[in-house]
Amino acid sequence: xxxxxxxxxxxxxxxxxxxxxxxxxxxxxxxxxxxxxxxxxxxxxxxxxxxxxxxxxxxxxxxxxxxxxxxxxxxxxxxxxxxxxxxxxxxxxxxxxxxxxxxxxxxxxxxxxxxxxxxxxxxxxxxxxxxxxxxxxxxxxxxxxxxxxxxxxxxxxxxxxxxxxxxxxxxxxxxxxxxxxxxxxxxxxxxxxxxxxxxxx
Length: 201
Description:
Blueprint: E1 2-8, E2 17-22, H1 25-37, E3 41-47, E4 50-51, E5 54-66, E6 72-88, E7 95-101, H2 110-126, H3 143-148, H4 154-162, H5 166-195
Parallel strand pairs: 1-3
Antiparallel strand pairs: 1-7, 2-6, 3-4, 3-5, 5-6, 6-7
Helix pairs in contact: 2-5
């Protein structure tokens, strides 16, 4: 299937939100077509060495602001993952022939999801990262939502996007939290201890 591509310095996951400011003429044209046809477009990570092969489609949920000069503020939601088979650059914006794919096998058990969610929120709190409202239901897979809010580099997020197993992706998240949390806990303890030493006269 052929879709329009929007290369960005982000990794979009299914079921997660993405606000965008559209100001280039080529992307105004692309978004205009998507809105007229009620179709989505593909978001792929733009890397120094080229485009990532795995991306995620974005569906336009609503237009937040329409400027007089044609610029747009829109809010999109990630939908389906795809793998690029062939790029097509005959238009002002990129298009690609893609194959869509889903996870295979079982989803992560609830006990693993609960452990992952607990470590996620502890990580954000200790890292001093403002927690955006995250609607989690532990009755369903949560790995995409956690990965989207993860304080990690885009390379790791790109790896998570390409995994085709919710169990493996959740385990990778757990490993990430367990690797970073001891340092964060030590830092928080040191800060608290130093705050209790002595006092200013």
